[in-house]
What does this fold into?
Amino acid sequence: MAQFRGAFTALVTPMKDSGEVDYEGFRELVKFQITEGIDGIVPLGTTGETPTLEEDEEDRLIEIAVKEAGGRVPVIIGAGSNDTKHMVIYTGRAKKMGADAALVVTPYYNKPNDEGLVRHFEAAAAVGIPIIVYNIASRTGRNIPAPLMEQIARIPGIAGVKEASGDLNQMGDIIDAIASRKSGGFSVLSGDDSLTLPLAALGGDGVISVIANLLPAKVKALTDACLGGRFGEARKLHYELLPFTKAAFVETNPVPIKQALSWAGLPGGPTRLPLGKLSPASEAVLRKAMTALGIKNRL
It folds into this structure.
């Protein structure tokens, strides 16, 4: 099973002012990512506003992503649900439509026990496509601690984890207990842009990045430096990007990054309710961070 390593972009879903999905904008964004050298793309995740998308909209977004990637970079499709039956359907759709892997989030709201979590990911892996576990307790209400992740990692077909717990001790334990010992590879990818460097220093494999929507080449450069052991270069890039990284999360993701894309003249557009517009105070923070990076406001 291929190991997923490098800089991957958690893609936004561009919208028109009418609230409709901007499919051509999405196509443009995928092309931009590939041209800028990103290692892979991740549509239909949290950043893609999946909870508000209709299934026919998702189908078309997957079709565009797979077609435009054309095998040049891996396409990891978000396939999570808090209902195992629907998760299996979405994972099967990702496989059928040509994705390279599926990103399956910890079931949200239900707060499953350990047995339920293991069986959930067994069902995902049984579909027959590599599975990246998405651990983000801040959105799901349920963390996957290292001992339980080790159990899940033993399931054939589990290819890695997007770790967004924010707990470097836990990430280090996962790398030590699983990634460094599992034959066939197990990728540990940061789910937080600000932790790309420290996770790589612990032996991690890269990042699934939000800010790469706007700055794919910079995030790729940071990740390459980290994975190449060039930590002096990596630190410089980390601190250069850090103000924008903080600004991109000044309010709920993906509200700030979509605004930043729109200001930069790239496909972004509004978010769908219940996500509202960026507040004036947050706009000021975001504009300042973009100006510091030399990103011009094209609107």
Remarks:
- Residues 6-229 form a domain with the TIM Barrel fold (CATH 3.20.20.70).
